[in-house]
Amino acid sequence: MRYALVDGQREEARPGLVGICPRCEEPVIAKCGPLRVWHWSHRGKRTCDVWWEPETEWHLGWKNRFPQDWQEIVHHSNDGEKHIADVKTPLGLVIEFQHSFLDIQERNLREAFYRNIVWVVDGKRRKRDRKRFFDALKSSRQIGNAVFLVSFVEEGLPREWLSCAVPVYFDFGDDNEPGDPFPIVSPVVWCLLPRRAMARAVIVAINKTHFVSASQRGDPVFDGNKLISAIEADIRRRQSAEYAAFALQQRLKKRPRRYPRF
Ligand SMILES: [Zn+2]
């Protein structure tokens, strides 16, 4: 954990300090070694919150995009269960930064617990995921600059995130790599929408700065439902135009040939 209570105040770990865990209220000690990010640690056991994962630079980088008062917030459910949310905005949106593997049951539990939650997933943890993702985008239908319709999304994205009921933002890093089909001009997260547009997955590239500022203001990052409706209307229009062209072709084939009269 980055924060513990010292004399009732949220404090970061510093050498020699002893704090109180905001969740279980047990003493925690400051771990200030040269290798890992300075943090607070429970005595004896690794952590009191089984949902907590050891933090990486990636976690900290993301959390620090948000005000300190919003980071590591203890969230209570009605039946007294408590967990520490990575970021919780004053309007109640929880943003969880997920680096390690999370199975589907576990993910569902957390979504049910937090309710108003979005995920930001470290897409670079497994090397092959990034390439698979961009390969899927290559064979998708692109709409404008930022929207991609993917027909076989299970081939392109980690399986454990496909059935998510809330938006998932994949972070595949800010640097272009050789062979990338889409040069990244400014840092983006790739949002997989929970709803499908006529069985196609919708992925939207969102500027990281916009994601953070919209979340901070309490605005939706974008209107996913409106986007899906527009895409579905477009698919229907294309399908009916194709059908009309096909029907016309069939009619022309059936028409008896007329020979010129002499
Ligand atoms: Zn604790």
TrEMBL record:
InterPro entries: CoiA-like_N (IPR057253). It comes from Filomicrobium insigne. Residues 20-50 form the Competence protein CoiA-like N-terminal domain. It comes from the Bacteria. The lineage of its organism: Bacteria, Pseudomonadati, Pseudomonadota, Alphaproteobacteria, Hyphomicrobiales. This is Competence protein CoiA-like family protein. It holds the Pfam family CoiA_N.
